[in-house]
Amino acid sequence: MAKSSKKLTPRLRKLSVYLYIPNIIGYARVLLNCYAFGVCFSNKWLFSVLYFISFVCDAIDGWCARKFNQVSTFGAVLDMVTDRISTASLLAILSQVYRPGLVFVSLLALDIGSHWLQMYSTFLTGKTSHKDVKDSTNWLFKAYYGNRIFMGYCCVACEVLYLILFLIVDTQSESLVDVVGSSLQQGSLLSILVALSLFGWAIKQVVNVIQMKTAADVCVHYDIEKKQKP
Amino acid sequence: MANVKKTAPRLRKLSVYLYIPNIIGYVRVLLNCIAFYLCFSDKRVFSVLYFISFVCDAIDGWCARKFNQVSTFGAVLDMVTDRISTACLLVILSQVYRPGLVFVSLLALDIGSHWLQMYSTFLTGKTNHKDVKDSTNWLFKAYYGNRMFMGYCCVACEVLYLILFLIAGKQSESLVDVVASTVRQGSPLSFLVALSLFGWAIKQTINVIQMKTAADVCVLYDIEKKQKP
């Protein structure tokens, strides 16, 4: 350990982390998203495919990191920031093509707010991941975080719902309620997919709200405990 | 110490939630909600409410220090409110200007740079991402070394976005046309737009540099962790 790490200069060591395989997948995700949003209005299907591939890469790079022993803090942050920005950008696009657009602006606010507060409270309590929540008393919270598959379903449901909403809108400024209502009433495969996605999306948003409250409590407790142990 | 034991944990929590600067924070959130609800029907009311919220941002920090009610929750509430209000304004701008993706990109840069900054602040144990002393970049030092300059750049961004929203005539205007014609007018507005553009450009450059610096902090954190098991 001593010999080989002393041979590597600090710059080379830094570069090697930037060139980890999962981090390269992360850069590919960023490029895919940039390209996808560049074509989102001119070619909806291409946009959706690229966006979805990026989403799949999100799962793959975590697996690669563990498999190749290339887990890095930078990789985790790159992942998180790419997720937040891609979801925010998709919600921004949706707010342009649906009425009332402010619904999607509100969802954007909830997404950023809840994840920001979560991350802050994770740091304050020294937990390694905001997904390692064990001591919350809320039953929905426990059900959500206790079951990784259920959690995965809710997260995927959100992205799928937003993508479907973007794909099925015909003209600008369509009424959101009308579009969702008519797609559910069709009784087609699309209806089932929309219904399933809506359910998972709803649970995720409720968990986001609860998480903001829980994380705020963590921030407050942190200060109280700091005062008691000077 | 004894009266701390008398106060129940729930009451102690409640007292922090009721700190004066935190109440100002809740007012800011409400102001922003009302502002964005009205943004298309009454642009001027929106701008006034948004600006008042921005002013409260400065006031609540001052109140926290004056009343000795500084809290982590208050700092987070402040930061999150800032990020969300700027993000929402950029989304609105992406609807009224072509190409809208310019504002979506600015949104991405704002979220990305502040997120990475916050992460790197935690990793290095600094109390505040504004306490940067050891960066070698000259612009970085100039920016963070001078609070007034920093304040000017931050205010310039918000003022530029508000002005752009106010002067947009109808839907889907070309951004380049609107900015160029405003600057060419030679009016006080032209002057204000030019000043804001300058500060905005510096802030965005800082944001980009900050992403790189913060990424380096994350990488160095892992390297140092490996060397001291």
TrEMBL record, chain A:
PROSITE patterns reported for this sequence: CDP_ALCOHOL_P_TRANSF (PS00379)
Transmembrane segments annotated in the record for this chain: 20-39, 150-169, 184-203
GO biological process: phosphatidylinositol biosynthetic process
EC number: 2.7.8.11
A Pfam family of this chain: CDP-OH_P_transf
Primary localisation category: membrane
One MF term in the entry's GO annotations: metal ion binding
Membrane topology designation: Multi-pass membrane protein
GO cellular component: Golgi apparatus; membrane
Catalytic activity reported: a CDP-1,2-diacyl-sn-glycerol + myo-inositol = a 1,2-diacyl-sn-glycero-3-phospho-(1D-myo-inositol) + CMP + H(+)
Cofactor: Mn(2+); Mg(2+)
Cell location: Membrane
Enzyme class, spelled out: transferase
Record's keyword terms, sorted: Lipid biosynthesis, Lipid metabolism, Magnesium, Manganese, Membrane, Metal-binding, Phospholipid biosynthesis, Phospholipid metabolism, Transferase, Transmembrane, Transmembrane helix
Protein family (similarity comment): Belongs to the CDP-alcohol phosphatidyltransferase class-I family.
Record's protein name: CDP-diacylglycerol--inositol 3-phosphatidyltransferase
Organism in which the protein naturally occurs: Citrus sinensis (Sweet orange)
Automatic annotation (TrEMBL), chain B:
High-level lineage: Eukaryota, Viridiplantae, Streptophyta, Embryophyta, Tracheophyta
Protein name as annotated: CDP-diacylglycerol--inositol 3-phosphatidyltransferase 1
Highest taxon in the source lineage: Eukaryota
